[in-house]
């Protein structure tokens, strides 16, 4: 009866193989960690402005009379402007901002120190005729920095929004969005804020500069918007998680 022979790898080859397996495992772990961080950094933000139905105004339950019926009244001496929940108002976008900033810094510093060598018996200490205890120190440091920044934005157009809330002091909370489909992409504009009924014009419009606590956003979705955005790895390497 013959016993099976056990094969033992050579010491050098075994260590090399183990190192290769360890290196591959470490590389796989690094790639997995990078993919996880990339997924966290590239997660799209949640839509904080979902589509909603226009709220209906609250109605009081009253008994209908023979002549007057609640809900069918017509205001003859009242401007037809937004003043109740559910009314609509047109906001004219006239946003225009410009900002610039510049800074300049310049510093300079010079240092010089000289320490003469001592004398012994009226003569300096020398070796082969060279004084060895004379010391001097000098330094020169300068810095020159300059920075400039400029930004300008302009947004014009009209958007019709709805009154979603009326405060006790008469202010109206308006909110709305507009979507426009162009070729294979969709562009949107969103706005919300508080307005005063007295600022609403007779044509039921108001300028965006009179909207308090205004939140205005403009963007798009589709192939054009995706092409102008950086990729997953680019967003990861430019995110705050990148240590370098």
Plain-language structure description:
By secondary structure, the chain is α+β, with helices and mostly antiparallel strands. Among the domains are: about 90-100 and about 155-225, no CATH class; about 100-150, no CATH class. It has helices at about 10-40, 225, 230-235; strands at about 90-115, 120, 125, 125, 130, 135-165, 170-180, 185-195, 205, 210-220. The strands form 3 sheets. It has a 6-stranded mixed β-sheet with strand order 9-1-6-7-8-10. Strands 2-3 form a two-stranded antiparallel sheet. Strand 7 (about 170-180) and strand 8 form a beta hairpin.
Quick description:
This protein is of the alpha+beta class and 244 residues long. The protein is 17% helix and 42% strand. The protein contains three helices and ten strands.
Order of helices and strands: HEEEEEEEEEEHH
User: In terms of per-residue confidence, which ranges show pLDDT below 50 for 5 or more consecutive residues?
Assistant: none
Distance between the termini: 65 Å
Mean pLDDT: 76
Percent helix, as a range, is: 10-25%
Instruction: Please give the radius of gyration in angstroms.
Output: 38 Å
Tally of individual helices: 3
Main β-sheet, spatial strand arrangement: 9-1-6-7-8-10
Q: What overall geometry do the principal axes of the alpha carbons give?
A: elongated
């Amino acid at each position: 009866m013959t016993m099976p022979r056990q094969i033992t790898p050579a010491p050098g080859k075994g260590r090399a193989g183990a190192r290769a397996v360890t290196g591959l495992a470490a590389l796989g772990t690094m790639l997995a960690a990078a993919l996880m961080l990339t997924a966290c950094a590239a997660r799209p933000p949640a839509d904080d402005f979902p589509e909603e139905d226009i709220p209906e105004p609250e109605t009081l339950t009253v008994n209908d009379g023979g002549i007057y019926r609640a809900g069918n009244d017509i205001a003859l001496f009242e401007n037809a402007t937004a003043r109740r929940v559910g009314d609509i108002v047109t906001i004219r976008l006239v946003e225009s901002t410009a900002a610039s900033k510049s800074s300049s810094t310049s510093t300079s510093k010079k240092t010089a120190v000289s320490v003469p060598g001592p004398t012994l018996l009226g003569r300096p200490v020398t070796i082969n005729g060279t004084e060895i205890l004379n010391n001097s120190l000098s330094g020169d440091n300068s810095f020159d920095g300059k920075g400039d920044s400029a930004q300008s934005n302009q947004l014009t157009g009209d958007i019709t929004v709805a009154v979603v809330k009326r405060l006790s002091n008469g202010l109206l909370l308006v909110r709305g969005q507009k979507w426009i489909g162009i070729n294979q992409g969709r562009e949107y504009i969103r706005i919300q804020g508080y307005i005063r009924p007295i600022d609403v014009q007779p044509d039921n419009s108001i300028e965006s500069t009179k909207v308090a606590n205004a939140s205005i956003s403009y963007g798009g979705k589709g192939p054009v918007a995706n092409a102008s955005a950086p990729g997953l790895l680019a967003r990861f390497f430019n995110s705050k998680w990148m240590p370098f």
